[in-house]
Specification:
By secondary structure, the chain is of the alpha/beta class. Helices cover 38% and strands 17% of the residues. α12 links the parallel β14 and β15. The longest helix is centred in the middle third of the chain and has 16 residues. It is globular, with a radius of gyration of 27 Å. It starts with a helix and ends with a helix. The structure holds iron/sulfur cluster. Iron/sulfur cluster (SF4) binds next to α2.
């Protein structure tokens, strides 16, 4: 378990010199205990104390990085069992698996289609994380050819190299680009596989289906061979088994601080499923609990959109709503006679309103006030979207200089502020718009008059 603030304080210099940016050593210790500060901020800690504190402050689950550049993904390093307790930090990588028994042209086509798939939601571009290539043929050259075929179409995304043969692994890793994951070391091959991964700068998955103690022991052996970046596969497949085992491992790592199991988990959703639909359900389960890497065997944009949206939702900090910057946004190319609407800076609200304004075909101005990232009703209830705030935003972003008319459309949910807003914005006509963004085009068509 981690140390308490007082335990940490006893190991600090206790000079209150403030070099760490905190007024006292005790304040710094409390922040360290809450994992809100880095030990490196204090330049005066003795080596002895540093060693003791580093062991205690190490995260209960290691972060593992795959790939490089803008396609790099980092998984693990989670601290919570339940997302609502604080937040989940590193969203799982979702990988599409191809097998080297497929013709190279088919592999290239499948990878090109899947890896170029992108979809935007609340201003965030969502896509698959990378490619897993399995050595189903058992032949080294066929495997390398399959990896090369996939490489050409992967848009620089990371690879999972799947083979149990160390020589094939070595050849595969050479063809697989930056920082791939080697899957998998088992009790028979771990020494050679660890050596191959280490030489290639790859991380390694450890596969041991015989129980958690053998899995932990094998992970320790691989770690002892000099590999820290480990991913665990306990061999559980299917919804019920994997949920049980994944939860058990997460709990042992996070609440019992069992370092031997403190690694991200890899899941193969398709292996426990009897259909593509079941695979999608199991993959969704792993996105929620507690996959670090989720490998799927079918690419279907309709399913992927759901998985990626789920991943975005689960891995959004509930205390920090996704928001856009307050300002006056141009939807299309609005002019001085174009409609002017106002709403809050919650991303989903902004993108819903902006999307429907665009769909109306009427270029418009969209004023976004600072509502601390809350949606309309929540912001209104919290006092973050009242007449004073809307009027202040209108003044700050000088809407009067952009439009000839003096009309502003407020969301239907806050019709109650229209009277006060008239007082705050003298000379302006306050129009109450629809409650739902989807009704904006119809509203503009029927109601907007310049
Ligand atoms: Fe204490 Fe170190 Fe901070 Fe100075 S820098 S106040 S010694 S914790």
């Amino acid at each position: 378990m981690g140390m308490s603030g007082l335990q940490i304080y006893k190991l600090l210099p206790k000079t209150n010199c403030k070099d760490c940016g905190f007024p006292t050593c005790l304040a710094f210790a409390m922040k360290l205990a809450a994992k809100q500060a880095e030990l490196a901020a204090c330049p005066h800690v003795s080596d002895e104390s540093k060693a003791a504190l580093a062991a205690s402050s190490a995260p209960p689950m290691r972060a593992v990085t795959l790939g490089s550049g803008d396609k790099e993904i980092k998984v693990g390093n989670e601290t919570e069992m339940f997302r609502h307790d604080k937040t989940f930090y590193h969203q799982p990588g979702i990988f599409l698996r191809v097998k080297d028994t497929q013709p190279a042209g088919e592999i290239a086509e499948a990878v090109a289609e899947a890896m170029s798939y992108q979809v935007e939601r609340v201003g965030i571009m969502m896509e698959l994380s990378g490619v897993a290539v399995e050595n189903a043929s058992g032949d080294k050259d066929t495997f390398v050819a399959a990896i090369e075929a996939a490489q050409g179409k992967a848009n620089g995304k990371p690879f999972i190299i799947m083979t149990n043969d160390p020589h094939t692994a070595q050849a595969g890793l050479e063809a697989a680009g930056d920082k791939p994951l080697l899957y998998a070391a088992n009790k028979d091959n771990w020494q050679e596989m660890a050596a191959a991964a280490k030489a290639a700068g790859a991380s390694i998955a450890v596969y041991e289906p015989e129980g958690l103690t053998p899995l932990a022991n094998l992970a320790e052996q691989v770690k002892g061979a000099g590999l820290e970046d480990i991913v665990l596969d306990p061999g559980a497949r299917g919804a019920a088994d994997s949920l049980q085992i994944f939860t058990q491992i997460r709990r042992l790592a996070l609440t019992k601080n069992l370092r031997e199991l403190g690694y991200p988990l890899i899941a193969f959703a398709g292996e426990g499923a009897e259909s593509a639909e079941e695979e999608a359900i199991i993959a969704a389960q792993h996105v929620s609990k507690y996959g670090g890497l989720v490998v799927i065997d079918h690419f279907d944009p309709a399913v992927l959109y759901i998985l990626l949206t789920l991943r975005l939702n689960i891995y959004t900090d509930p205390q920090k709503p996704i928001q856009v910057s307050p300002g006056l946004y141009e939807i299309g190319e609005p002019g001085p006679d174009s409609p002017l609407a106002v709403t809050t800076n919650f991303s989903l609200t902004y993108f819903s309103a902006a999307g429907e304004l665009a769909a109306s075909g009427m270029p418009s101005w969209l004023l976004i006030s600072d509502s601390e990232g809350m949606s309309v009703l929540t912001a209104w209830a919290a006092g973050n979207f009242d007449a004073e705030i809307v009027a202040k935003a209108a003044k700050t972003f000088d809407v009067a200089s952009k439009v000839n008319h003096r009309k502003i459309i407020i969301p239907g949910y806050v019709s109650t502020i229209s009277g006060e807003l008239e007082e705050e914005m003298p000379g302006w006509e306050i129009l109450v718009g629809p409650r739902e963004a989807v009704d904006i085009p119809k509203y503009l068509k029927q109601v907007w008059q310049n």
